[in-house]
Specification:
There is one protein chain. By secondary structure, this protein is an alpha/beta fold. The chain has one domain: Alpha-Beta Barrel (TIM Barrel), CATH 3.20.20.370. Helices cover 32% and strands 15% of the residues. The chain has nine helices and 14 strands. Strand 2, helix 1 and strand 3 form a beta-alpha-beta unit. It is globular and about 50 Å long. The structure holds zinc ion (2 copies). One zinc ion binds next to loops.
């Protein structure tokens, strides 16, 4: 059983699954266009957050905290087969697999972002063996500590939740969960499934479903469910509808923000920095941030902030 909490004010969270090439590690073909843009997109997104003074939760793949590796990772139970795409070497040689400089950009920002964890090598926790999940947490923590970063919030690769007891054991305090059950008790359709995303964007009835309530789970971790991803799910072909002057995703986000500002709770948007490859992708984010900034009394928080608020309320 878990307790759900409705916050006193409307809160917006933006979390980013920050992974450069790691998110594609197990895919048949690496999407070169996305990987090529990923570093530049990361910086441009940071600039936009800075322009609108909006803090975000950057859930970073642990391997990106490194600036070099042997490409084999004998210390990891999955061994060299799992890491066969990891080219090893240094950040200068293989910048899509390392990200210390990009993490420093987040730290240098005048906006108070949170740096969280997105596993070490993009292992799906829901189907991983315990020793693998444990190693993923341990290696991430070690790598982050070398940069004086302490990890508190966790985002599961592909939202595949698992090994929550280990999260607790390794000092994490919150995670991004999956969509909750709707008010009438039914499971909300998973809009992140391939092909499903547009349907949800155009379904007016889904509007009150995107506001989520954090809960404290049996391990004492705060589960902050996601509302929805703001870019097409990876691998989706972009719909022609997106070519219209009007951006349907922006429309959906604005409606949700309007709804949120009159209701308490959390709207938890998420995406990958490498989702932004075209100018109009950046345009969408800019328009969202602009709208958020103008909206009163919206509070923009990191996952860590929301967890803190819940704990302070004596949850
Ligand atoms: Zn490596
Ligand atoms: Zn990911």
């Amino acid at each position: 059983m878990s307790d759900r909490f409705t916050l006193d004010r409307p809160n917006l969270i933006i979390s980013l699954d920050s992974e450069l090439a790691w998110g594609f590690r197990d895919e048949k073909d690496l999407p070169e266009d996305k990987i090529k843009c990923a570093r530049n997109s990361w910086i441009r997104i940071l600039d936009l957050f800075e322009e609108y003074e909006i803090p975000a939760t950057w859930a970073v793949v642990g391997h990106l905290f490194l600036d070099r590796c042997d490409g084999i990772h004998r210390e990891h139970p999955l061994g060299k087969d799992w890491f066969k795409r990891d080219p090893g070497g240094t950040i200068d040689e293989n910048p899509s697999w390392f990200g210390k400089d990009l993490i420093n950009h987040i730290l240098d920002s005048k906006v108070n972002h949170e740096i969280g964890c997105h596993s070490f090598s993009h292992v799906e926790f829901g189907s991983a063996k315990r020793e693998v999940a444990e190693s993923e947490l341990q290696l991430s923590i070690e790598a982050a500590e070398k940069m004086d970063i302490s990890l508190e919030s966790f985002v599961f690769p592909r939202n595949n939740v698992g090994h929550l007891d280990l999260l607790k054991e390794y000092g994490f305090t919150s995670y991004r969960g999956t969509k909750p059950v709707s008010k009438d008790g039914g499971m909300i359709k998973n809009t992140m499934r391939k092909g499903g995303i547009f349907l949800d964007y155009f379904t007016p009835l889904s509007i009150d479903h995107s506001i989520v309530s954090p809960s404290v789970d049996e391990f004492g971790l705060v589960n902050i469910p996601s509302s929805f991803i703001i870019y097409g799910f990876r691998g989706d072909s972009r719909s022609n509808l997106e070519n219209f002057v009007y951006d349907p995703v922006l429309l959906k986000v604005k409606k949700e923000i309007d709804f949120l500002s009159e209701n308490n709770g959390v709207l938890h948007l998420w995406f990958h920095p490498n989702d932004l490859t075209r100018e109009r992708d950046f345009g969408r984010l800019k328009n969202i941030l602009k709208y958020v900034k103008e909206k009163d009394p919206l509070e923009i928080k990191t996952m860590k902030d929301v967890r803190k608020e819940i704990v302070e309320r004596g949850a």
